[in-house]
């Protein structure tokens, strides 16, 4: 009798254990799944990452999960980035994280593993038309259209050319600062991995000579998507840019006098809270009722709609808790707001190879040309 009860107990314990393990496995699996979801990143890290979450939702990548770029596929990376995420979660809880969160993100998975899951650099993009429509801050919100054609190029290794040539081949560079804005050396390898052309920045030559001769070998980076496309989804635009976009899309009526000037005045420089930004936006109604009393009555609905849209723009530009504004993060995919392409172009000089002695091309036509407009 005793023996049988013991036996039953054992079976009970064993099956309970097995069920427990199954639940544990499901639990861990679901936890990992959940941690990979956008909701997790957006909600749990809400306070810290709300600027990134907000701009991401308004971007072309809003259907791509955070993990698809920040973790990538494959368990090895998943485990490593989850582990390296733990200190971040702790600092989130205790509020000791940096504000703003610093970039470049050191442990972001190499872009060639993540971006290339969806984008094929070998596909040739050719020339891409870019139309920049801007509006002045005058009474008529006068429109100005400026277009250029970008030589994006691309293509398989060997035949690739133009801007995406830089990822078709093996281009290495040495960043001299943490933000990767100062570039001391560039080396181009052929398909056999032999250095064929080297460039240096003459202004940094003496610093390069006096540093550890192994520095290039140890610190060089293979040029990838993120060396240009830093703001591919967390696109922090200024109120001015967002108002222009709202005009283009018809969400703000550009016939409302001075609406751009008033909108920019309310939101730039950034307000110290969203509530303050909204109060300033609401005050635009008073501007119309005093300066344009007739229009205030006849265009009441358009004014109301513009105010609602400006509140949305306030939400996309006001991140005081994290000290983030449209000026915080560097966009390397151009050269107007930060040096971008001009970190190398116009600065570097070839010291070996076929280009020897030449300054890296910075003629405007090498990257974009004009469309004839009538
Ligand atoms: C399409 C790819 C992509 C997606 C999707 C994405 N990110 Fe990013 N993220 C980036 C890139 C690229 C950077 C900039 C890296 C750098 O400059 O080193 C970045 C940077 C960041 C930073 C550092 C601060 C900053 O603004 O540069 C945070 C925080 C961040 N992402 C959080 C998130 C969260 C949360 C999500 C999901 C809601 C998300 N990311 C989705 C690509 C992505
Ligand atoms: C899971 C798929 C996916 C991943 C991963 C991804 N993208 Fe994209 N990307 C897209 C899609 C889809 C679009 C087009 C969105 C649209 O036009 O609405 C896009 C658009 C773009 C555009 C054009 C944006 C514009 O203004 O029209 C660029 C540039 C880009 N991606 C670069 C990147 C880079 C760099 C990375 C890696 C950090 C990356 N993408 C990761 C799916 C992805
Ligand atoms: C030397 C800088 C540079 C590098 C490196 C680079 N790009 Fe681009 N890319 C550009 C520029 C400039 C444009 C055109 C303007 C824009 O969209 O910002 C562009 C456009 C694009 C576009 C939109 C045009 C199209 O073909 O539909 C995609 C997608 C894209 N890049 C993906 C990538 C991916 C993925 C990588 C990495 C494998 C990469 N780029 C590396 C500079 C670069
Ligand atoms: C890290 C340095 C570096 C940065 C940053 C950089 N380039 Fe370059 N770029 C080079 C080098 C080096 C070459 C090759 C010159 C040669 O032929 O020897 C090159 C070549 C080019 C070419 C000519 C490709 C061909 O068909 O031969 C274009 C176009 C170009 N870059 C555009 C850009 C644009 C646009 C940006 C910014 C979005 C940019 N580059 C940023 C270093 C850089
Ligand atoms: C190394 C490549 C390169 C060179 C050289 C270059 N540009 Fe650009 N330029 C770009 C890229 C990339 C953009 C971003 C295009 C975009 O996203 O629409 C750009 C954008 C611009 C814009 C539009 C900015 C805006 O936001 O409206 C102007 C204006 C401009 N370039 C003028 C010039 C002039 C003038 C020269 C010659 C002195 C020049 N560029 C040389 C790559 C280059």
Keywords:
374 residues; alpha+beta; Multiheme cytochrome fold; five-stranded antiparallel beta sheet; three-stranded antiparallel beta sheet; 42% helix; globular; binds heme C
Structure description:
By secondary structure, the chain is of the alpha+beta class. The chain starts with a helix and ends with a strand. It has 15 helices and eight strands. The chain folds into three domains: 2-116, Orthogonal Bundle (Multiheme cytochrome fold), CATH 1.10.3820.10; 151-231 and 330-370, no CATH class; 239-322, no CATH class. The strands form two sheets. A five-stranded antiparallel β-sheet has the order 6-3-4-5-7. The chain has a three-stranded antiparallel β-sheet with strand order 1-2-8. The chain is globular and about 75 Å long. It is 42% helix and 13% strand.
- Write out the strand line-up for the largest beta sheet, numbering strands in chain order: 6-3-4-5-7
Helix content: 40-55%
Based on CA atoms alone, the radius of gyration comes out at 27 Å
Number of beta strands: 8
Gross morphology is globular
Q: Outline the low-pLDDT stretches.
A: 25-29
Topology as H/E string? HHHHHHEEHEEEHHEHHHHHHEE
């Amino acid at each position: 009798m005793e023996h049988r009860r013991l036996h039953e107990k054992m079976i009970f314990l064993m099956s309970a254990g097995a069920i427990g393990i199954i639940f544990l496995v499901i639990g861990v699996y679901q936890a990992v799944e959940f941690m990979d979801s956008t909701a997790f990143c957006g909600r749990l890290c809400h306070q810290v990452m709300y600027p990134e979450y907000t701009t991401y939702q308004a971007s072309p990548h809003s259907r791509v999960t955070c993990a698809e770029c920040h973790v990538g596929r494959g368990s090895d990376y998943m485990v490593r980035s989850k582990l390296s995420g733990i200190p971040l979660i702790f600092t989130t809880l205790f509020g000791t994280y940096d504000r703003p969160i610093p970039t470049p993100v050191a442990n972001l998975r190499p872009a060639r593993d993540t971006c290339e899951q969806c984008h094929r650099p070998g596909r040739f993009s050719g020339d891409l038309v870019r139309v920049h429509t801007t509006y002045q801050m005058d009474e008529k919100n006068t429109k100005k259209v400026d277009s250029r054609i970008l030589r994006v190029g691309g293509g398989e290794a060997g035949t690739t050319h133009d801007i995406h040539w830089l990822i078709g081949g093996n281009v290495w560079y040495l960043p001299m600062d943490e933000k990767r804005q100062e570039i001391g050396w560039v080396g181009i390898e052929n398909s056999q991995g032999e250095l064929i052309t080297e460039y240096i920045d003459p202004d940094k030559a003496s610093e390069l000579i006096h540093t550890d001769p192994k520095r290039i070998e140890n610190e060089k980076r293979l040029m990838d998507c993120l060396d240009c496309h830093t703001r591919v989804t967390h696109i922090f635009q200024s109120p001015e840019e967002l108002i222009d976009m709202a005009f283009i899309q018809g969400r703000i009526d550009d016939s409302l006098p001075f609406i751009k000037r008033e909108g920019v005045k309310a939101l730039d420089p950034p307000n110290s809270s969203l509530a303050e930004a909204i109060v300033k936006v609401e005050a635009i109604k008073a501007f119309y009722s005093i300066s344009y009393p007739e229009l205030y009555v006849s265009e009441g609905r358009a004014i109301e709609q513009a105010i609602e849209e400006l509140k949305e723009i306030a939400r996309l530009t006001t991140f005081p808790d994290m000290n983030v504004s449209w000026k915080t993060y560097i966009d390397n995919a151009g050269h107007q707001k930060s040096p971008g392409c001009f970190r190398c172009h116009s600065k570097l000089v070839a010291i070996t190879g076929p280009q020897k002695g030449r300054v890296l091309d910075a003629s405007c036509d090498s990257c974009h040309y004009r469309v004839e407009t009538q």
